[in-house]
Amino acid sequence: MSSDFLSLAAPGVRTLQPYQPGKPESELRREYGLSDIIKLASNENPLGPSPKALAAMRDALSGLARYPDGNGFELKTALAAQLGVPMAALTLGNGSNDVLELVARAFLTPEHAAVFSEHAFAVYPIVTQAVGATARIAKANPPNHEMPYGHDLAAMCSLIDDRTRVVFVANPNNPTGTWLKTAELEGFLKAVPESVIVVVDEAYFEYVEVETDCPNALRWFDRFPNLVVTRTFSKAYGLAGLRVGYAVSHPQVADVLNRVREPFNVNSLALTAATAALDDVEHLERSRAVNRDGMQRLLAFCRRQGLAWLPSAGNFLCVDVGRSGREVFLELLQRGLIARPVDNYGLPRFLRISIGTEAENARLIEVLADVLKD
Ligand SMILES: *Cc1c(COP(=O)(O)O)cnc(C)c1O
Questions:
Q1: What crossing angle do the helices spanning 51-60 and 268-279 adopt, rounded to 10°?
Q2: Which of 95, 102, 113, 282 has minimal CB crowding within 10 Å?
Q3: pLDDT bucket at 204, cuts 50 / 70 / 90
Q4: CA 8 – ligand 1 centroid, Å
């Protein structure tokens, strides 16, 4: 081979580090020959999809020879009604990851910059670099802050200049779990120039409890035309494998996003399942309750063990294991438990643990206590 294809790649792509997903169960089964495996590594819903979504998909199977509805009319109708926004404000994506990419493709060029925080979701640098734009990374809160390693909005604000077109805010943030309170985020939205798109990534919105004061950013939908709120069916709705998410924005922004969107970016089973899942309030409530209970158990365990953790408004907890999080991750793997090391997020002593079912949490607690005792 005489070509060096890496050197032929677009400049931003050459230095890209691919996203590192949670280790799939099937991989652990192949590598270690284990059968009884628990995955608490990707913040999925441990209860699985809504039974209504499964039934709707079964009914839709015979229609698979047809292209999906490229405009997602039924899902958009249901979302618009539930969220109280016009249908023209919605952009559907192949997961909310797809929507984040649409924002980058539509608004960023090599002349422009995106601002986001340290220890924020790994997809922001990827979508920024892939289009050759500059990533400006704000220092996060210090470890002794009320929200350790969380977004420092003042630091983010100070990085915004004439080149900035997009700011990514994760609320709550992954992998830290930390969040921005209503007044803080509102102040930030007021301070950012209207020419800068502010993406508020609410992947964990459905898990957020009222007393956290972590806002539903859609409350500002009418006030800030540069606001783009993204959500997903991958987390609380239990449909991560189907890939469906959405953005809510000013219709003019949605129109721009729609121009770079792949015509059939959300497949027909995903559209059908998401529409049915939205309707299954009971499943969502059960999922929230399982998360609340599981979180309490994991927090009690941390207290007993004298382990520190980062405050979390999501369905996962970032635990300070007091030594290399990756080492602990590997020891858990050998015992059939998949958690998530976060050294690649600049948090080498932490382990991110998704909340599972009652039985899964119990097993995690037992095995982790055993691993940490030596
Ligand atoms: C999981 C997650 C997403 C959602 O990803 P999908 O592409 O919708 O599966 C988006 N943002 C954050 C912060 C996440 O943790």
A1: 150
A2: 282
A3: very high
A4: 30
How far is the C-alpha of 114 from the C-alpha of 134, rounded, in Å? 6
d(CA 322, CA 331): 15
Q: What are phi and psi of 320, to 5 degrees?
A: -85, 105
Selection from 144, 153, 141 nearest residue 191 by Cα: 153
Could you tell which of 126, 214, 235 is best to mutate to test the pocket of ligand 1, judged by most ligand atoms within 8 Å of the CB?
235
Please give the Cα distance from 195 to 320 (Å, whole number).
39
Query: Please, where are the H alpha helices in the chain?
Result: 5-8, 11-14, 25-32, 51-60, 73-83, 96-107, 123-130, 153-158, 182-191, 251-260, 268-279, 281-305, 325-334, 358-373
Dihedrals φ, ψ of 134, to 5°? -90, 135
Instruction: Judge if the beta carbon of residue 121 lies within 6 A of ligand 1.
Output: yes
- Atom 1, ligand 1: residue with shortest CA distance: 203
Res 199: pLDDT: 98
Determine if ligand 1 sits within 6 Å of the CB of residue 232. Answer: yes
Q: What is the C-alpha separation between 51 and 204, in angstroms, rounded?
A: 21
Q: Is 157 helix (H, G, I), strand (E, B) or coil?
A: helix
Map tokens 């979508």 to a residue. 127
Question: How far is ligand 1, taken at its centre, from the CA of residue 374, in Å?
Answer: 35
Q: What are the tens digits of pLDDT across the range 259-302?
A: 999 999 999 999 999 999 999 999 999 999 999 999 999 999 99
Query: 257: closest CA among 128, 70, 129, 91?
Result: 91
Q: Which residues contact 217 (CB under 8 A, 6 or more apart)?
A: 171, 185, 200, 202, 227, 229
Closest CA to 176 of 319, 342, 318, 21: 318
